[in-house]
User: Fold this.
Amino acid sequence: MNWEYNDGGRAAAGYKGAANDCVVRAIAIATEQAYQTVYDALNNRAIDECPRKGRQRSDSRTGVWRRTYQTYLESLGWVWTPTMAIGQGCTVHLRSTELPSGRLVVAVSKHLTAMVDGVGYDTVDPSRSGTRCVYGYYFRCDQQG
Assistant:
C-alpha cells in the first residue's frame, strides 16, 4: 500500500505534541473537513455521552468512542461496511488491492486511518507491511465506485 504522511491539518490548527487523535485526523482527511471542525464536532457529541463507571467521555485529543464517531460520520452521509465478523478471522487487509477506491475511513485494531483511492494518509504507516486486518470502513455511498 502506498502511504503518505498527513496530520489531517492538526499542525495548521495550532496543535503540538503527542495525542491519540487518529479519529479526528482520519475523518478530517477522508471528509475533507478542517481538523478543528471535526475536533469540535466530536467533542460536542461527547457532551451527551453517559460513560459507564470508570470510563471517560470521548475526547478528540485522548480518544473517541466508536458510537460517537459513528453517529458523526452517519450524520455526514457515511456508511459502515464491516469486513470481519466474530469468529471469522481476517478476510481483508490494509492493502489498496483489498479495499475499494474512493475516500474511506478505515478501522483497524485500536486505530482509524484514511485512504483515498488506494493511498493511505496518516502520521505513520499503519499497514504493518500489508498484514494488518481491517475491521471495516466508512464511505460516502454517493462516492463509492
